[in-house]
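Dear colleagues,

As part of the handover before I leave the project, I'm documenting each prediction I ran so the next person doesn't have to rerun anything. This entry is a single chain, and its sequence is reproduced below.
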Amino acid sequence: MRSRNAKTDPSIVPVTRRTGSYALIDSLRRHGVTDIFGYPGGAILPIYDELYRAEAEGGIRHFLVRHEQGAAHAADGYARATGRVGVCFGTSGPGATNLVTGIATAHMDSIPLVVITGQVPRAAIGTDAFQETDIWGITLPVVKHSYVVRDPADMARIVAEAFYIASTGRPGPVLIDVPKDVGLEEFDYVPVEPMSVKLTGYKPTVKGNPRQLAQAIALIRESRKPLLYVGGGAIAAGAHAEIAQLADLFQIPVTTTLMGKGIYDERHPLALGMLGMHGTAYANFAVTECDLLIAVGARFDDRVTGKLDEFAARAKVIHIDIDPAEVGKNRVPEVPIVGDVRRVLQDMMARISEMHLVADRGQTADWLAQINRWKGDYPLTVPIYPDQISPQEVIAALGEAAPDAYFTTDVGQHQMWAAQFLKNGPRQWISSAGLGTMGFGMPAALGAQVALPDQQVICIAGDASFQMNLQELATLNQYGIKVKTVIVNNGWQGMVRQWQEAFYGERYSSSNMELGMPDFLKLAEAFGVKGLLVRDRAELAGAIAEMLAFDGPVLLDVHVKRDENCYPMVAPGKSNAQMMGLPEVKRAAEEGPTSLTCGSCGHETAADHRFCPACGAKL
């Protein structure tokens, strides 16, 4: 009998003596990783030594950030822009803990990351060794899964599992903690190919229940005032075409969460923009008055719902989501559907086709007419001041000058204005929604630009947020990453100031950023980045054009009106129909009644309405 060997039998994988670090880097390459963001240190040096050889061979690049938080945000931006798993490295101790904010940001927004941290040698774990932290325990609440590699022979399997877990079901970050001696130890290395692993107990539901699909179709056909409420889950699933198909077939208006921006063409007549705390007035009125709410990949979070028991109170609810824990968590739906959003919508449309159903496109005509009246009554407007630039002007000008750009934001007023006024395509909106992480914008733009070198990537920042991670200008300069960063500079922590004005008696405690603010032009120059300054409206268009034309990173500092507030705004504890900042709200508060009764149908509504939300009659 002839003996089997690797040369004569292709099913036998040849065994080679390799280190744990080699197994890690080789496994990353097998999973299609071409870009890594990180910062070295003692415990992770064996991995960086192997990375040095891999970079020399080509096909994989490492980008040295100036702070580990920047690495996590860059990997996050990379993942949001492409849908692929982002990868970042950090060493043990403070290197690992500096990644935590970025990991939590990705976890809240369901972004697929694989985070590699160095750790002290196995024998030193638990001894309070130099730069030892239990990063596995620290991150447990903010990861989808995590590993400590105890045996280098497990490395390839763990990497394969990590990528599988991060990218399937509801995406999220996965941590792999690698003790230093595991990275150095040699063993008989056998690769594990991508998507070849099987995990007991982990099998995300992809296909929706047929009975529930039928119930959903029945509710949609009965509805006269339907509304599609679409979140980040639809972006993650790539359900752009399916959302458009469903909306068009039944003439259903579409509103999105902050995470859902870009899922639907915001220039389309059916688009209502964002809903919630700083959503459009017409989206918030629509969700208040709809009779059917179709929630797709959304989680009914507090910034969307306002007062939860008054959110879509007149509506039946269909809730479609990949994560069964989200369905019914905050609002119990009439029709719960657990499954991949795109697959569920595809199956729903196929079922409609098989049943030869013909949608009555006029069924929602009155509803759409009512929404159009709200759009006419409460439009988003760009204020123009005689001697000051409004923040909204800056956002609108950027949107007009770069309509196809990928936009990242920091967090605050500028983020909400950007969400209101920018019209983004699929995956072209990148913002920290759930955690609200200041300092996210520029490193996220760095990651998006690395992923998409031929695209225009623009970061919209506030002067306060920008200072959280300004050191990443050095990374942009070192690698010639052509991110354009625009600071909407009002000299405040803008949203904090607005809340202090509205709810804290104008006591502006520690929110004024003017004192100590750097000269951003000189800062850009110090980092070797082109800097531009705008103080006058006449300079704005030219500066934006110059910024976009420059083949390299640019920092544009635009000084805007200091006390501009972001409206509409739903105050905490109020319903979405009770918005601050509309002209009618101010008039109603000054002139008297807080509610009106419609003379045509008897419906009682807020005094800020010009038209009855129930029948559309003029009030």
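Residues 391-559 form a domain with the Rossmann fold fold (CATH 3.40.50.970). The longest helix spans residues 68-82.

All the best with the project,
I.
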